[in-house]
Every structure is written in structure tokens, then in C-alpha cells.
Amino acid sequence: MSTSGKARTTYREAVRAALREALQRDPRVFLMGEDVGRYGGTYACSKGLLEEFGEDRVRDTPLSESAFVGAGIGAALNGMRPIVEIMTVNFSLLALDQIVNTAATLRHMSGGQFSIPLVIRMATGGGRQLAAQHSHSLEAWYAHVPGLRVVSPATLEDARGMLWSALQDADPVIIFEHALLYNLEGELAPDAGAVDIERAAVRRAGSHVTLITYGGSLGKTLKAAAILAEDSIDAEVIDLRSLRPLDEATFLASVAKTRHAVIVDEGWKSVGLSAEILARIIEGCFYELDAPIARVCGREVPIPYAQHMEEAALPQVKDILAAVRRVLAHV
Amino acid sequence: MSEFRMPSLGADMESGTLVEWLVRPGQAVKRGQVVAVVETQKGAVEVEIWEDGIVQALLVQPGACVPVGEVLATLADDTPLPAPMPPPLPSGEGVEVLPARSIPASESIPSQPIPDSSRQPTVRLRASPAARRRAQELGVDLAGIHGTGPNGAVSLEDVEHAARAAQTRATRPAAGAYDPAAMRAAIAAAMAKSKREIPHYYLGTSIDVGHAQDWLSETNAQRPVKARILFAAVLLAAVARGLREVPELNGFWIDGSFQSAESVHLGVGIALRGGGLVAPAIQHADRMSVSELMQALGDLVQRARAGALRSSELNTATVTVTNLGEQGVESVYGVIYPPQVALVGLGKILERPWVQDGAVCVRPVVNATLAADHRASVGHRGALFLAALDRLLQEPEKLA
Fold first, then answer.
1. Count of structural domains within chain A
2. Domain limits of chain B?
3. Which of B130, B153, B157 lies at the smallest CB-CB distance from A287?
4. Where are the beta strands (DSSP E) in chain B?
5. Please, are residues B337 and B320 in contact by the beta-carbon 8 Å criterion?
6. Residue of B136, B142, B155 to mutate, testing the A interface (most A Cβ within 10 Å of its Cβ)
7. Would A2 be classed as within a structural domain?
8. Which of A144, A210, A263, B284 has a beta carbon 3.0–4.6 Å from A254's, enabling a disulfide?
9. Domain B189-399, CATH 3.10.20.600 — does that match?
10. Which domain holds residue A257?
11. A151 and A37, same domain (yes or no)
């Protein structure tokens, strides 16, 4: 316990607290996915919830993403508030038809008669030597699709607070949890609760360059900003939080102020989120720019298994530093 | 490719502040063209370039103070880019161009070569969007700004820096005004160096200028009022031609030896308001007529006082003339301006008793003096110069 009354906790525990609160507060809420019940969740996020809430509300599913996401859509259509956990974004591609062709479209195709208040949580990202089957950052695939809301909690507060807000949305929401964040430790107020899921957040104010990032790259970006500060480079760090829709007002205002931007995205550069953000900056504040925008992204390869190669494939603090110095011509 | 460097605009100059670029990258320049304005301790100077070429990059930004010899810009050879061979044209005269194969009459050949845009050397200016907009707002020309952004692009800060520099220039009391303290320091340095290093010797003689004055009066009577010549121009013409006869007095003492100059670039001491002094050169004064010298002198005095002297006028004088006659001085004992080796002094023209043909008469007489560097010449040679000056002033018609 700290003097501020905040409790020491982890991202994983914050996710679990959010799940518990949802199950407690709304009888329509239930959790479903592979290994979420008896095993307690692949990342142990739902440990103890089966015992606490019973098999009706914490349901283990067969290994069929298409089936259990489809079941979640059906339940949502029928008035429930399902939380579907998919082990990793790589596996979610098996449910792409359900998510993109059904969940995202039904409101529009029914002329507004039906909505799908479904929340899908999934782990994303590399850095754990789990190779190309488990390590990709495919947030952009979902951020591409109208009819979905996509959020990415990068802090304990957001891990704790985004779920409840997502459940209040009448339409499908996808929550991306970067797998490296589950062990993130920090302090959280005992009364921490729902947070907005619309706005980006300025995690560090600065005046020389805007660093735009989200999810698992936020920590590296803040670390880079701290190192830059020793060099008298004052970086502003923006955590997008919502990947669809993008809160462009926040990052455009920041870039208009600093006139320099570096985008840090673990996803691939080509046709990715970083490309979209870069395009929005060019569209929205071209005349404010004082240098070309730089991107620090995942290398365009399937994420390698070998540790040194995986490290080389993912954005690192040194890469962010180099990009910022290039943009500011402080090479 | 060649380099354009901060010129030395005087022996005492160690550094200069680039005030303004008058060219931009991609622009073709000719030898002798004024390409930049440099602020020295003696005021703003228009600096010329000494090679033909195309400005490649401006490496120093206005407002920057750089040492003499520092590269200010790079220059590309002005050989035009190789153009593709135009199609052979059937020519009626001149060299017959034989086509490689016979061309049937029906196969038309373009009557004019297609214009090739690659012949024009175009260097696209790199500037950030923010810099471009700000430059427009501030009315700053991007072309003259040295870019410090990524890949040498002009950044917003570069534009604002240039605008501030321009502002500073604009808020100075008057165009060409100089900093009296800085100029005083420059004169002090040069004169101390002169007296420390140059073993001066001094010679003086009185010269009857009555004949020359009469000649000038006649000449002026035939000229429109505006084109009338001052007697100072006659004196300068005589000094310049006299120096040609004694080359040991015209040139520079550099690195322990004397280098005589081929032409007499006559430095003329011009007092500035506020106590300043410059001695810009009239180029090739020894080849000028009195009337040309008059014109050059008038132009030089005007521009010196307006602060618009050119670099070639400030660093090329091979000898200096100081005329203090207007101030009533009878004799000037000059201090040589290094690395020059002589200074000619002229005093006031006075009516004096003068012995001519065994009789005393009243004649206008000027006291001409010579301060010369004993390392470069001996008194005998100095005396020959004063004698030549006297002789030339007795034959003013030859100076016309």
C-alpha cells in the first residue's frame, strides 16, 4: 500500500477485477472461451471466477473460435452481454467470418433492428518467444472494419476500466490485451472503475516531438521519452487507447504543437495502423509539419522464435530514440 | 565542383557575419557577380564570386559569424548537363549530316528537337511545410536560408532565425551604418600591426600644381557642371601612374617577401561619419583617365558612406592614398595599411612663394609625402616615385 491509498497490483489482476465486477454487476454478463474456466485462463485472467460464479457464467468452450464467437453473437442478439476470450489474435482469424461478416454488419443489414452487444477480448503481440503462431499484432485487421469498436488498454487503469465501458456499448467491441502487459505491475486506486473508451490520452506532455503509440509499445515509448529528456528533447507521448475509431483530434493537436511525429506500432508498417495515423496527420495538419514523419514498426517478417531475432523484429527503445533524433535532425 | 569561402576583406579581418545571400541554390553565377552581403567590422560589404558556376548548396545561414576561409557555398561547374543528341536534321548548308539509313520521304522527322527540360539545372528547394508557410507569413525568401532539418531541409526554426536576422538588419539606425567601436578595434589592430612590423621610412616633397590646376580649369570650362572634375582626381591619376614606374611601392608584403601587383588598385582613405575610416580601392586606377577616376571616386565615396562597398574593393587595394588637404593639413606622415607597402599622403594646396627661373613668384603648391616599407623598397626608389609624381603633374594633358 502506498501513501496515496493505491494498491500494488498487476495488469492481470486488473483484468480479473474487471471481469469479476462485470459478472457481479450485470446478470446478463457471462465469460466464454478456451480454458477460461477450470484452467483459469491462458493468462490466468479468470482464475477463481469459475468457482465464484459457476459453470453457467464462466464457460469453457471447444477449440473452435468460429463456433464460440458465433455462439457469443447469438447470445448477444438474444439479450445477453457475453465476454468472449480468444487466446491470441492469431487464432481469432478462424472467427474472422463471424466477427467481420456477422457481428460488425448485422445492425446495418437489419436496418437497425438488431445489435450485437458483444465484447471480445484477445491477447496480442510478441516478445515471449511464442513464434509466428502466437505473436502477431493484427489490431489493424479489426481497426479496418466499420461496425467494430477496437480498444487497446495499455495501463492498469484501462485494463481495469475499459471492459465495463465496452459492455455498455450496443455494438461489438474488441479489446486487445498485449500479452507482455499481464505481468505489468503498478498501483491502482481501490475504487478504480469504468473509463472512457473514446479518447486517446497524453501520457507524457512535451513540446518537441509527438510519439504516438498504443498497447504493448507504450512502456517502451515512455522509456525512450525519459532518455530523450536527458538529452533535452521534450517528447509528448500519446496513447491511442481506441484504435477504432481513432481519436485524431488528440494526436493532431499534439503534432500541430510539436510539428514532429514518430509513430511506434508493433504491427507491420505496410497497410497498418501506423500507415493510417500517418495519413491522418498528413490530411489533418500537413502545414504544421516541420519534418517528415517517422515510423518504428515491427519488421515485415513473421515473428521469429529465436530470442535475438524476435527482439530484432520488434520495435525497441533504441529504435525509437534513433527515429526521434532523425526527425529532429539531432543525429 | 568548387567552394566559395569567406573572403578576407582586409588584413585585419578574422571573421565576418553573413548578412544575406543574394543567390539561391541552382542559380547560375558569373565571375564578379555579387552573391552575398557580409558584415565586417567596417560595415556591410557586397561580396563577389570569382568563378562561373552554378550554386549548389548554401552552407552558411544568414546571421552566422564565420572565420575567414570558411566554405560558405559550394559551386558546381556550369557545364550544361549532357543533352541527348537531337535527331539529325536534313541541313541545306553547313555540315552535311548523313543519316544512318536512307529516310523515305513519307517518314517525317520532327522539324525541331523536342525541348529537353533536363538541360535546365533545377534544384528543388527542401523546406518543411511549416517552414514554407511561415516564410510566406514573414515574407522571407526560402532560397537564401541554410537548412538544418533532416537532409538539410529548411525547418521552421531556420525560417524564424532568418527572419530575426533580417529584423536585426532592418532595425539598425541606417543602411550601411557600422559599429564605431568595432571599427575602432579593427583600425587599432591594423595600425598596431603596421607600426609593430613595418619599418617605415618617410619622404616628402613640395610640388607646384599651378599648371595642372590651370589645365583642369580649362577642361572643366568645357564640361557640363555635373561632369566637372575635382582636382583630387588629377592628383590620384598622377599618383597611380607614378606608382607604375616604381613597382616596389605597389603590392603586398606577405610571408616575408614582397609581391608586386600588376595593376595599381588605388586605396582611397574615406572618412565616415562618426570617426570611421575605410580605404576601398579604385581598381586599375593606373589605366584610368582623370575623368574615369573622377567617376570612380564619386561612386566609391557615395557607396562607402552608404555601406555598400564590394569585397573586391575592400581587400584588393595595392597601395593607399590619404588626402587630408581639405582638413587644412600641410603634410601627411602615413601609417601603411598592411600588407601594403606604401602610403602616399597629400596635403592642402597652398599659395606659396616659389622660385621659378630665378624669380620669386606665388604658386599653388602641394606637399606630397610617401611612407614606405623599407623591407620592400629603399629610399632611392621612393624618391623616384615622388619625382615621377611631380613630373606627371607638370604634364596634366597626358593624364586626360
1. 2
2. 2-80+122-169, 189-399
3. B130
4. 2-5, 15-21, 28-29, 34-40, 43-48, 53-58, 65-67, 71-76, 200-208, 251-254, 257-260, 266-268, 270-271, 277-278, 281-282, 309-310, 319-323, 342-346, 350-356, 359-373
5. yes
6. B155
7. no
8. A210
9. no
10. 201-327
11. yes
pLDDT values of chain A reduced to their tens digit, one per residue, 331 residues: 445 678 899 999 999 999 999 999 999 999 999 999 999 999 999 999 999 999 999 999 999 999 999 999 999 999 999 999 999 999 999 999 999 999 999 999 999 999 999 999 999 999 999 999 999 999 999 999 999 999 999 999 999 999 999 999 999 999 999 999 999 999 999 999 999 999 999 999 999 999 999 999 999 999 999 999 999 999 999 999 999 999 999 999 999 999 999 999 999 999 999 999 999 999 999 999 999 999 999 999 999 999 999 999 999 999 999 999 999 986 5
B189-399 and B2-80+122-169 share a CATH fold: no
Quote the pTM value.
0.57
List the Cα angle A298/A304/A309 in 5-degree steps.
Answer: 80
Nearest CA in chain A to B153: A291
Show which of A138, A162, A188 is a domain's final residue.
A188
Task: Report yes or no: A288 at the B interface, CB cutoff 8 Å.
Answer: yes
**Bridge-based pairing state of the strands A149-151 and A173-178:** parallel
What are the φ/ψ torsions at residue A60 (nearest 5 degrees)?
Answer: -75, 140
Q: How far apart are CA B251 and CA B258, in angstroms?
A: 7
Grid cell 468457482 is found at A51
Give the CATH number of the domain where residue A48 resides.
3.40.50.970
**What would the grid cell of residue A279 be?**
495519413
Out of 2.40.50.100, 2.60.40.1180, 3.20.20.370, 1.20.1740.10, the CATH code matching B2-80+122-169 is 2.40.50.100
A290 at the B interface (CB within 8 A)?
A: yes
Mutual angle of helices B210-221 and B231-245, in 10-degree steps: 120
Optimal mutation site among B61, B146, B156, B161, interface A, most CBs of chain A within 10 A: B156
Q: In this structure, are residues B2 and B53 in contact, taking their beta carbons and an 8 Å threshold?
A: yes
Site of grid cell 505473436: A135
